[in-house]
Write a structure and sequence with these properties.
With about 350 residues, the protein is of the alpha/beta class. It contains 13 helices and 14 strands. It has two domains: about 70 residues, DNA polymerase, domain 1 (Orthogonal Bundle), CATH 1.10.150.530; about 280 residues, TIM Barrel (Alpha-Beta Barrel). Helix 7 packs parallel to helix 10. Bound molecules: S-adenosyl-L-homocysteine (SAH).
């Protein structure tokens, strides 16, 4: 039983009340023979005010608060480590979760507001060789309430409103599909944090069937696809997921996605020196993406202590970008934020696990 609940990401039989949507919470309240209006009060405390305990729900009678305490759980992130960049305003958190696990997220300050990069799983099954998140393997999925708590905890600590979310931290969001979709429903709810779907990006390594599922939902979010190579031979060397769903199948799903949603896809391309950064790679990439509603985001790869590869030099990145632009693609080069605090995904969590 213990191992089954671990797989499901559940650690008790108590109701995970912050993961319920308003309709489910109302049903839950009614099933307990409680007055229906309590649902609106409780939902507001959970989703909008982000309380960390039932005792903070001050407009509820004490006996109801005690009942909630007895029947429900409220998983919260607790700040274990906070790193503030001295170069820019980037803040990185390592949070402790109730079950002894750790999760990390990063808050970045842009001209348009605050953006948070959240984790969707503890560890990751995908095994991309350049990614720190893959190092310790997979532990479990994160619940919708835990993903919300990543945001609520950072907001409360920084005293700011976070307006943008990227699902680009540890984990593969489309491998935790139901929980991620519920999280998206809750975080965009007008009665909750009310973050616009237009301000949310979801990044996937290419779980093809789920891209089709997501296309059907026609959400207004931005889909980022981690491509990182122009052909199957190279991509399969660094991204095992490519052996299951090769590039042609992935791009077919991407085309279906843009057709269904009219949304441009962002292809992520982490540039590794001498591996995927040649002129020939740029030409092949341009060929493959030609005619697609897309944009390419070049990322000088972040070195990971446990791995042996180097980022491409600035001139190489520039030349690669120029070739893509000449071939008619829209290209950006990702700005590095928080480079002094090891801000890229998985690195802090990986170093914590090694200390344990
Ligand atoms: N599993 C999802 C989201 C998490 S990773 C995905 O694969 O898209 C978020 C992004 O960071 C992905 O594009 C991933 O490929 C990239 N990434 C991972 N390790 C990196 C590294 N060392 N340097 C630069 N980007 C990296």
């Amino acid at each position: 039983m213990a191992s089954l609940s671990r797989v499901l990401g559940e650690n008790s039989l108590k109701t995970d009340i912050r993961s319920l949507n308003f309709r489910e919470l109302t049903d839950w309240i009614c099933a307990k023979q409680l007055p229906k209006f309590r649902a609106a009060q409780i939902y507001k405390w959970l989703q909008q005010k982000g309380v960390r305990s039932f005792s903070e729900m001050t407009d509820l009678p004490k006996d109801l608060r005690e009942r909630l305490e007895a029947e429900c759980k409220l998983p919260n992130c607790k700040i274990d480590t906070k790193l503030c960049s001295e170069i820019d305003d980037t803040v990185k958190y390592l949070y402790a979760l109730g079950d002894g696990e750790y999760v990390e997220c990063v808050v970045m300050h842009y001209k348009y507001g605050y953006s948070i990069c959240i984790s969707t799983q503890l560890g990751c099954k995908m095994g991309c060789t350049f990614c720190a998140s893959a190092i310790g393997g997979f532990q479990r999925h994160l619940r919708p309430s835990e993903m919300l708590s990543e945001i609520l905890t950072a907001q409360a600590d920084l005293g700011v409103r976070i307006s943008h979310i990227v699902l680009m931290g540890t984990g593969e969001p489309l491998d935790n599909y139901d929980n991620v979709l519920r999280f998206l429903e809750l975080v965009t709810d007008e009665k909750g944090l009310n973050i616009s779907m237009r301000h949310i990006s979801l990044s996937t390594c290419g779980v093809v069937p789920r891209i089709y599922d997501l296309a059907e939902r026609r959400l207004g979010l931005t889909l980022s696809v981690s491509l990182h190579a122009p052909n199957d031979e190279l991509r399969s060397q660094t991204m095992p997921v490519n052996r299951r769903w090769p590039i042609d199948e992935l791009l077919a799903a991407c085309r279906a996605y843009t057709e269904a949603t009219s949304r441009r896809i962002s292809f992520e391309y982490a540039m590794i020196s001498g591996f995927n950064d040649s002129d020939a790679c740029a030409l092949e990439l341009a060929e493959r993406l030609s005619g697609m509603l897309c944009h390419v985001n070049l990322i000088p790869v972040n070195a990971v202590r446990e791995r042996n590869f180097q980022r491409s030099g600035d001139n190489r990145v520039k030349r690669f970008a120029d070739i893509l632009v000449r071939k008619g693609l829209t290209v950006t080069v990702r700005r590095t934020l928080g480079s002094d605090i090891n801000a890229s995904c998985g690195q802090l969590r990986a170093s914590k696990s090694q200390r344990r």
